[in-house]
Amino acid sequence: MSTMDDVARHAGVSGSTVSHVLNGTRPVSASTRTRVEEAIRALGYRNNLNARALAAGKTFTVGLATSALQTPYFGAIVNAMEKRLSGAGYMLMVGDSNDDGPTERRIIDALLSRRVDGIIVTPAIDSEHTTIPQIVAAGTPFVLVDRNLPLDCDQITPENTESAFLLTNHLLALGHRRVAVLRGLMGIGSSPERYQGYLNALAANGVPLDESIVLNGQGHRDDAEREVRRVFAGPDHPTALVALNNSMTIGALEALVGLDLSIPNDVAFVSYDHFDWSELIRPKLTSIAQNVELMAETAVELLLRRIDGDTSPAQRVTIATTFQHRNSCGCGLD
């Protein structure tokens, strides 16, 4: 079996250089990295992770308890996190809670049992009373992502309230007064914040709240489709709709197509969350785009610092969003 010294001799470098390439502990030039990687492949060398973990006092694994991995948004977050962690020599272990508290607890139990070095959590309902205390009691560094909690801990979230205000206010500025909203699970941090932005826009424009057009999409595609079909089936349906996440956006679009309602002629439509394929939809979606990569990279960087012993005060970082003005709102853009 080949050793690290064998790889070093084959590549013409020092053993420490091979170690830096394998573990991401120090920058190495591209040409040197290529020689080392070619030597590893030629010799069939495998890094001894157990020995590395014993020597460093780490497992070089990070756990992620998230939700709805099948959605474009959370899939993009996981992809960005994995890239950054891999570059730092860590492996990412992922569990999908599906926004279910007991499932999230089982995931956290499994990750703690495997002695991960840190955990990233997209918290489910009631996490602050269940899973988060588990992590705190274990002394494992952790960071919350996407959804905030009323806790003194590291949290990285997108801007929610002002973003939803911008979407709703834009429709109201175009003359709509019956603007329906698809809101998510109200026990999850981001949902009430986005709904509050909707309410703020109504108040700023002197439009009273009509609770009959507040649709509980629960953050899910199927629930959103069912709610939109229910409210928009009659002739006196709302003239505009705000969907407050991308899963509900898909469900809403399916419902409107099924009802043979045209966007924006019959229903002006805007959404919180951007899709890579938004430009392919006709009309193009007016939406709020999140900086998913920045949010993921910020969370990983902060967690890695905590793993390395950073004890500075907890940080709450809000990542700015971008208003993408297109045609689905009814604006005839060039």
UniProtKB/TrEMBL annotation:
Which segments constitute the HTH lacI-type domain?
2-56
Q: Name one Pfam family in it.
A: Peripla_BP_1
- SMART domains named among the record's database cross-references: HTH_LACI
Organism the protein comes from: Subtercola boreus
Q: What is the name of this protein?
A: LacI family transcriptional regulator
UniProt GO MF annotations: DNA-binding transcription factor activity; transcription cis-regulatory region binding
On the tree of life, the source organism's domain of life is Bacteria
Q: Which InterPro entries match?
A: HTH_LacI (IPR000843), Lambda_DNA-bd_dom_sf (IPR010982), Peripla_BP/Lac1_sug-bd_dom (IPR001761), Peripla_BP_I (IPR028082)
UniProtKB keywords: DNA-binding, Repressor, Transcription, Transcription regulation
Heme in keyword set: no
